[in-house]
Amino acid sequence: QDAIDRKEKRSETFKTAVHGLETDAPALKTEELGRRAPQWVRDNLVTMCMRCKEPFNAITRRRHHCRACGYVVCARCSDYKAELQYDGNRPNRVCQECFIFLTGCTVLEDREGKHKGILEKGAAEVSSRSLLCSSLQLLDKNGKGGTRGWFVIPQDDPLVLYIYAAPQDVRAHTSIPLLGYQVRDLPQSESRHLFQLVQSGQVFTFVADTEELKQRWMKAMARSAAGITHPEEEEEDA
């Protein structure tokens, strides 16, 4: 029974489809792994290994693609070979999870069961069940520079804003608890659509790509800041 439970748990990791992100790559069904060529996740959508979550860099951590699921992974997580039916049963580079699934073998370093902290929820998983997600820019304190990222307010954690470096990353690099903040509109500056989160001297300034997107984010953040977790609650308050 334990072996059955473990296999079903692994199978579930391949059934999550990415919705509303900047990619049209359909997720392979479990039974299609190795039998059909996957559509690769684009390199520019990922800043860290989609398996071990270690950031990529130009020198020590190169990007590789798992030939079974199409994920972008580091060399350590793709140091496995499995025969793939769609490639004439020739051995191909695959990630650890696909290797276990396709071969039935186990590996020494099994990260299964690791507790996921608040920042370790994958962007694709969270975005597919979000109240709002999109690309935004978060300005630094002097308002001149900033970092563009993928911002998400999840349905199952609607009082927190998660910030990812890229829409396919498997770990957020920071989060902002929204409860108690005030949402402040700012006049358009140099064709930039600006708004702020403000609380007790703490100020976060955001830049949206369009005025319509800015208004959507202001409304979503205001709901979360007021502790409204469902649209029905907002209607009752009104």
Brief digest:
With 238 residues, the protein is of the alpha+beta class. It has helices at 2-12, 96-103, 123-127, 211-225, 231-237; strands at 64-65, 72-73, 80-84, 90-94, 130-139, 146-154, 160-164, 174-177, 182-185, 193-199, 202-208. InterPro entries: FGD1-4_PH2 (IPR035941), FYVE_RhoGEF_PH (IPR051092), PH-like_dom_sf (IPR011993), PH_domain (IPR001849), Znf_FYVE (IPR000306), Znf_FYVE-rel (IPR017455), Znf_FYVE_PHD (IPR011011), Znf_RING/FYVE/PHD (IPR013083).
- CATH homolog superfamily of the largest domain: Pleckstrin-homology domain (PH domain)/Phosphotyrosine-binding domain (PTB)
One letter per element, helices H and strands E, the order comes to HEEEEHHEEEEEEEHH
Tell me the strand percentage band: 25-35%
Assembly category: single chain
Q: For the CA atoms, what is the radius of gyration?
A: 20 Å
Number of strands: 11
Q: Count the helices. How many?
A: 5
Q: What does this molecule look like?
A:
There is one protein chain. The chain has helices at residues 2-12, 96-103, 123-127, 211-225, 231-237, and strands at residues 64-65, 72-73, 80-84, 90-94, 130-139, 146-154, 160-164, 174-177, 182-185, 193-199, 202-208. By secondary structure, the chain is an alpha+beta fold. The protein has two domains: 24-115, Zinc/RING finger domain, C3HC4 (zinc finger) (Herpes Virus-1); 123-226, PH-domain like, CATH 2.30.29. The strands form three sheets. A seven-stranded antiparallel sheet has the order 8-7-6-5-11-10-9. Strands 1-2 form a two-stranded antiparallel ribbon. The radius of gyration is 20 Å and the shape is elongated.
